[in-house]
Amino acid sequence: MLKVGIIGGTGYTGVELLRWLAHHPQVQIQAVTSRAEAGTPVANLFPNLRGHLDLVFTDPAQENLTACDIVFFATPNGTAMQSAPELLAAGVKVIDLAADFRIKAVDVWEHWYGMKHTCPELLEESVYGLPEINRAQIAKARLVANPGCYPTAVILGFLPLLEAHLIDDQYLIADAKSGVSGAGRKASVPMLMGEVGESFKAYNVSGHRHWPEICQILNGFSKPPVDLTFVPHLVPMIRGIEATLYANLERDISLAEIHTLFIQRYQSEPFVDILPPQSHPETRNVRGVNLCQIAVHHPQQGKRVVVLSVIDNLVKGAAGQAIQNMNIMSGLPETTGLTGVALLP
Amino acid sequence: MLKVGIIGGTGYTGVELLRWLAHHPQVQIQAVTSRAEAGTPVANLFPNLRGHLDLVFTDPAQENLTACDIVFFATPNGTAMQSAPELLAAGVKVIDLAADFRIKAVDVWEHWYGMKHTCPELLEESVYGLPEINRAQIAKARLVANPGCYPTAVILGFLPLLEAHLIDDQYLIADAKSGVSGAGRKASVPMLMGEVGESFKAYNVSGHRHWPEICQILNGFSKPPVDLTFVPHLVPMIRGIEATLYANLERDISLAEIHTLFIQRYQSEPFVDILPPQSHPETRNVRGVNLCQIAVHHPQQGKRVVVLSVIDNLVKGAAGQAIQNMNIMSGLPETTGLTGVALLP
Amino acid sequence: MLKVGIIGGTGYTGVELLRWLAHHPQVQIQAVTSRAEAGTPVANLFPNLRGHLDLVFTDPAQENLTACDIVFFATPNGTAMQSAPELLAAGVKVIDLAADFRIKAVDVWEHWYGMKHTCPELLEESVYGLPEINRAQIAKARLVANPGCYPTAVILGFLPLLEAHLIDDQYLIADAKSGVSGAGRKASVPMLMGEVGESFKAYNVSGHRHWPEICQILNGFSKPPVDLTFVPHLVPMIRGIEATLYANLERDISLAEIHTLFIQRYQSEPFVDILPPQSHPETRNVRGVNLCQIAVHHPQQGKRVVVLSVIDNLVKGAAGQAIQNMNIMSGLPETTGLTGVALLP
Amino acid sequence: MLKVGIIGGTGYTGVELLRWLAHHPQVQIQAVTSRAEAGTPVANLFPNLRGHLDLVFTDPAQENLTACDIVFFATPNGTAMQSAPELLAAGVKVIDLAADFRIKAVDVWEHWYGMKHTCPELLEESVYGLPEINRAQIAKARLVANPGCYPTAVILGFLPLLEAHLIDDQYLIADAKSGVSGAGRKASVPMLMGEVGESFKAYNVSGHRHWPEICQILNGFSKPPVDLTFVPHLVPMIRGIEATLYANLERDISLAEIHTLFIQRYQSEPFVDILPPQSHPETRNVRGVNLCQIAVHHPQQGKRVVVLSVIDNLVKGAAGQAIQNMNIMSGLPETTGLTGVALLP
């Protein structure tokens, strides 16, 4: 049994980690910390966990996490980097669900996140936790940076096309849409239901922190660096991300061939599902499960390919992918504790 | 392994049955029928089932269901009564998720459902499938009438109070609210999102089919018959029922004592969860799971008790309860294949 | 032209007042104050007002509101009582959309609102601004307490029955449901869309501040005081309140007679609309307009009457009713600036 | 007073026309037809119109519409072309809110709409009713083809850039998102709230009928024809369209200059509102009003411009624009009867 700790268990990625880990057959949750809720039974804050989990939130300062095999940080950006060095030094593996270790270039990170990085020496070692790209390194990693939700959906959609050099990497468009749980569970006016219900908008068009993260990964498959425009939008629903990706084809190719390319690229991936060509994946197809569904289109047989990619932002876009990484890091079968059927309707 | 058939698998109770049965450790699904979708892979209609289920919808007329151990009817009212006699005669057990066998008095049934009953001789034998009341009879039953969604939430909330003769049975109010999936998955103007989104209303105030069903069961715990006013409402969400129940206390009793009564009544029930007194159960607490959460209140220490009861109308209010009944009828542990944590948020 | 000031214009009742007053033919808005947004153009915060309003939020401390004819307080509870005495002394009329002047008994107010009242001497003079009851007093008032949203829907629904002594005032149930805008526009976790979307719950069952307010008014039509149970619920939508009211009839009376009673009571009321008997008013019928729609039911011809009442909580439940009061206080036709058709769908 | 007829008044564009026309100071509604609802008072079907409109739906076959000055067709595609010739011959002006007269090339129309056009001789005469492009021709027109909802939002966003030859017309992307009311008010499974609530998807990616319509208009400002990829998406809300438009700039230009271009292009347009650069228009900003809000972005100062454009699909995208056209065709001030503040929240 893996001894697992969760730092910052009161947010949406925290409760989603708990939803999965409560029944993971190889996990024993040692501690769930929260400064604000220390002393509160977890199931009081999250009544869906009544009967599934007997834990009480503890103060991270009081908690001896070095007894854990692995620790998840489900905390705001800038928190994991405070404690990760000590945990690693004690032999604990670390998975950060926030952004502290996602960007390799410390100046880029500090620019986009607006703070000083406290352990830049760990950036090179940290592994970007997208198993479909980095499975082997994840297996050996001590420190995994769990990908952002948008990057997961966007990268998995562009990947086969870039790897096959099928598209013009100087003209990539990612128009992405997210449910509101992506903004987390903290008091704010802009995320009130009165503000975001029954309305739709783009946001951060001039620059979103997931843009450099996506570019960094896609650049690994492109030379020169990609020219990507990424526009996120807010959808009046709770869970789900849909990314509509546009690229120019570099050569004549049929939709069937493009589809085959995706099928082949992901044929052994347990958590990527390629739909038939011209399908329209709905976010509800993956609600509550660790899965990315993708479909390809070739409108008007023109020069453009359109890829549709959907995930549950809290699962394949956060907690589920983190557990997938944990399984890989721990030598467990990758799907352990991650099965289930999406909630439809 | 139980050989199971599902008649009418294209509705919301159908896909919910499939979501649970696809991974039930003791079930092998033999057939899922649909006249309209015969020949279509189930996972084409419901992409959440891709990779979980390999079945194709078949025409019920072509299907030999007598090879099943148990057959679920997830069909409109009036369908199960056409085929149940033949299946029962062939030794197949039947669970009807519609209303054909819920009402004992054939004239009452025919009045509320506006059609002639084709096998009234089965009404006496049929068992009302609310395990918290009828577990022993369900265990021996050939034919189970799975309760309506509203009745499940309302009956479980009133039951301890009526059994203990604590309330005036001549003044019961059940103000119930349901998500839209309760209306099923059939083309209709009134259930368009453009009609029911961002709005709230009562409906069928002058008489809803679940009223005689609730009364029939509550009358088993009351003499004379109860005087119940039942008002259903439509909530702009997909899953969930909340029932707010009002009754006059017949004697002085503290909230703590009322709470204890509920705790004791349901202490061995795996699918009823009594929250602390003065809690406010939210429908999301039980989204996607087979559970009824209940809390009791005693406002202003007056003569009135208020009971709050929530279920997922498609699970404890339909498919989950049907599988609970199947487990009981088949001698399996009642919770087999029915575990899981509710999807929150 | 009336010179009008609005204190606290950044909340939902504030922007709704501005939506109506921007085009009110007899109003000139002098000032809209906000401590936090002083200096910000109103239309920057609320882009629906672009082109309709040229005002900038000002600091209330800097603003000379005594030049106004009338001042609206769209502020949290406890704010209006700080400034109202000074304004009244300067000859300015005051309408408080919060609760400071709604309750006559200062001890009751202080108990429910958890603070000391700073001008209890004004409580007797203040008029409860429900025109359907207090039109004459409102016309002469200097200080109007605009009713709460729930009280408006509940009182208008019970009123004809109580006035006619048709119902048992010792057994009144008001099961009320509100959209989320009723909770206002302030940062909070419980009102995030991630928390309240796709879910339904009762809240404050053991005691809500609108309960003593409703009782105080209904007691004016009942002797002894009414015994009312009031349970509010939260609906995953933005605007709208629906109240389902239950009472026992004291004598035999047909539904047609009850309906006629309501028609007669409200025949000259411009903002109360009695639907045909057995109708089901939807909150969307009144979305964005100053109207209460009511329908009566008599289920199973029993001893109970059910009244359904819907309003837009921000209009007839707040800003619209405040302007209705302003019109009356100013000798304008009551409907001035308050016409319009509800937004459906 | 204009005598106005509405053919097909039971859909969402029908009720929206009625909402505006009921209080239009220069309009007298002569008839609202509906085959299915003939004899039903309009306000029974749409209770928001109670007290605002006394009309009864009539059978179009019985109705003498030649007495009207102007007739709106709020009917499915293929209906207006049946009756328009006769009305025009009788001197009645016609505005079709459906697609019958939008496409000039009859073969293109017949390909996309899958039926034979019955009066192709009218296609040349018909005027595409986008006043921001065709105001002068609309003023003289007998027959106006009211634009589609997506085309309105997309064309207004691209227009200034194409007119100024600022962008590469061979690489236009329009990623558009619509609320569910765009699909109309007809019984269908895919538009049930149970299907489209709490989910997001692209649809018709391989080809949507609004694609040739948009291209036809944009081609008027481009040589050779534009290469546009248009992808529509469905948002779980009722009203609103947001279009995110991507194009490559042909020359170096600052965001401020692009913004100025938009300001100048639309400075005299009453129903187009250019927000400050880098704004994020929300669909709720224009809910219920005849307005297109637009903002421009220049992410990472690269070669790409991003335009955000929002409308209410039922107002500027349908009924409001139709009334705008009626005003122009009738020599009325263009804004007559079309003022109002959007409903926010």
From TrEMBL, chains A, B, C, D:
Any idea which GO molecular function terms this record carries? Answer: N-acetyl-gamma-glutamyl-phosphate reductase activity; NAD binding; NADP+ binding
Which enzyme type, at the first EC level? oxidoreductase
Q: Which SUPFAM superfamilies match?
A: Glyceraldehyde-3-phosphate dehydrogenase-like, C-terminal domain, NAD(P)-binding Rossmann-fold domains
Report the domain of life of the source organism. Bacteria
Q: Which GO terms describe its cellular component?
A: cytoplasm
Q: Where is the Semialdehyde dehydrogenase NAD-binding domain?
A: 3-141
- Tell me the protein family, please: Belongs to the NAGSA dehydrogenase family. Type 1 subfamily.
Protein task: Catalyzes the NADPH-dependent reduction of N-acetyl-5-glutamyl phosphate to yield N-acetyl-L-glutamate 5-semialdehyde.
The protein's name in its UniProt record:
N-acetyl-gamma-glutamyl-phosphate reductase
Q: Which organism is it from?
A: Thioploca ingrica
Question: What gene is it encoded by?
Answer: argC
